[in-house]
Amino acid sequence: MSQISSGTVLITGPTGGLGRSATMAMASRPAGERPDLLLIGRPGNALAEVAAQARAAGATAREIGCDLASLAGVHDAAETAKELLDSGAVRSLRGLIASAGLSVVDTRNASADGYELTFAVNYLAHAQLIGDLLSSFTTPGRIVLVGSNTYYANWVRRLLAVPAAQWRDPLELARPAGPEVSPTLKAAGVAYSNSKLAILYYAHELQRRAPEGINVTVFEPGFMPGTGLSRQHSPGVQRLGRGLQRLPLPGISSPVKSGPALASVTLDERWAHLRDGDFVLIDSERDVMPIADDPGRERRLWDATAKLLQSTAQADN
Known about the structure:
By secondary structure, the protein is an alpha/beta fold. It contains 10 helices and 8 strands. An 8-stranded mixed sheet has the order 3-2-1-4-5-6-7-8, sandwiched between helices.
């Protein structure tokens, strides 16, 4: 049994796609290799069902309802997680998987806190959650952030018109587009890629600041068209995604393949050496592009994130 499996793993986005597959892969492991699970997702039947299925598979699983578009809600979810940990309802916290994510077509949409919705859910919510829970970890521990290669454009992404990141100051990235900006798939793609580049920068800086014994990794599940990530896109775009998933294109994956791989990166001794935001593409380590390793941008993102989270906390008080 790995040391991570001897404790609890918290996962966001457990109700569909990659998160659900990873949740059930962990829950279905043999008793001696199975962690307890804290499942953070939008309240409702889907969250209750995946928690029930995890328990039916033999896991100790507790669900925590949370809308990641509200930083106050994320903070409350972290407090609930701490209560469950402190009460002994689950074992000590050793793993955290930041799996939840979305891609919003209209970048004028704002979170409950007034931030651009893609950036708010994919990045800021997880920064809030991790910051709230970092002191609750038992070491050794692992934090696995779900990233994406979309931050840069290779020939496949150019062919599919998937835009690369267009990095700006984080305070600007957090600002919704103005009313004069029309929603386009390109703008949505840039916002998504920016949020995933932010995750890479955050992972590197988090490792510099995390307590000794907590390792930070970024997991890329591969291109998984047709999943819930595109739920806010048009029916036509969603149908196209499901069609692409059936084609033998290079780099195509699915939750069935990538979910167990995410569970493995989180739990297994094979990956115990990963740290410093090491990048794993499904089941192999990869180097990131030079643009994704920038200490100056990483420090600026950290400072700007603290300002964004603090502004929200002050507004709530």
